[in-house]
Amino acid sequence: MKRILSTPFLLLIVVCCFAQKSKKNDVEGIKPVGIIKNLTDSALLDVVQRQTFRYFWDFGHPVSGLARERSNESFDYGNEVVTTGGSGFGIMALIVADSRKWISHEQAVDRMVKIVNFLFKANSFHGAFPHWLNGETGKVIPFGRKDDGGDIVESAYLFQGLLCARQYFTADNPKEQRIRNVINWMWGEMEWDWYTRDGRDALYWHWSPNNGWAMNFPIHGFNECLITYVLAASANRYPVSADVYHRGWAQSDFFKNGKTFYNIKLPLGFDYGGPLFFSQYSFLGLNPKGLKDQYADYWEQNKNHTLINHAYCVDNPKKFKGYGENCWGLTASDNFEGYNAHSPTNDLGVITPTAALSAFPYTPEYSMKALRHFYYDLGDKIWGEYGFVDAFSEQHNWYAKSYLAIDQGPIVVMIENYRTGLLWKLFMGCPEIQNGLKKLDFTSPALAKK
């Protein structure tokens, strides 16, 4: 595998093949559906979003309400592993489900109360949550031998979802007040400045009470971690300075690019853009439309990254079976060997549905072509109880049986952002986020309204 990613994500690849299958939630479930012929584009989006949401609703952990890391058993991690970052994505999907009335508002409120009450008592480390928690006890489950403490990137994904929930559940009643209060308490106790490792000019990914800073991973861009710096700058009690963003995040040998690939300019990041989740995870809440700073126009960055990924799959230089105009999308996922971060520079012949489907805001025409192909032409192999399976390779005649929280969540959320902008409106409406973006010298239409 060519080295295209920062060291922290390479660690993720090594240890990401794990998880659990176990008892279902004791909730009123959402009935799965098979392939329905002749759907309009809008109706097809409804079906895909709703069935994908089942991963978080029907398969959510019965005690905590949080998202299980994955649906299949692997490496004997047991039935209780939940993911903090994937749970942030799941919370955003829950908001979509409530908005679209797949579940009742009361059901959504009760699930959120369960989640925030559990998180408030769960292990945290200077306010940051670990990558994995035991969904029954709230105790940390080590993600690696030394990764048994706070993970601020996973915590950022979680807080992205929690802040959206705070903005959404606004009723003046005890349950929704409880949701807002607990989220505000946890948000206020997150010590972003601690994770500058004694005041250095960068955020550090991990800290552990047992291993200190031994993992030693400063977070440099450009990759999936932009939201971490935005949240850290936006905090009320323990913020980081703008210098940490400019001297840490924006200073690396893989931050600026400026070259063209398939006649498409890529402002930032690795050649060909890297896996597509770089343009998705941070932007589930952070609206890239009109978002600019001194380094990039983030709509241009994300759209062009996606267009390059699409053009590469159409070009298909390795001649993999199945690739083409209707079958594209390279990102991190399961594969026939285990798990990998697929991209144009690390292409193993594996297509991951979340890549094209979570790109709907950027490339709606291309994403819809992919969706119709996945659903109607390949549905008998890749459509299941929680939507599309994680990945497939026609070249290797391999079709995953697994579903992953970090891949299912963005499908629901980014399709909704394409359709209504719901999560973008909620997140960008947070006063703290508006102040943090201004502090980092971002401009955005959402800031001009204040």
From TrEMBL:
Pfam families: DUF3131, Glycoamylase. InterPro entries: DUF3131 (IPR021478), Glycoamylase-like_cons_dom (IPR019282), UCP028431 (IPR016883). It comes from Mucilaginibacter sabulilitoris. The keyword Signal applies. Keywords: Signal. Residues 1-19 form the signal peptide. Residues 50-152 form the DUF3131 domain. Residues 216-431 form the Glycoamylase-like domain. This is Glucoamylase family protein.
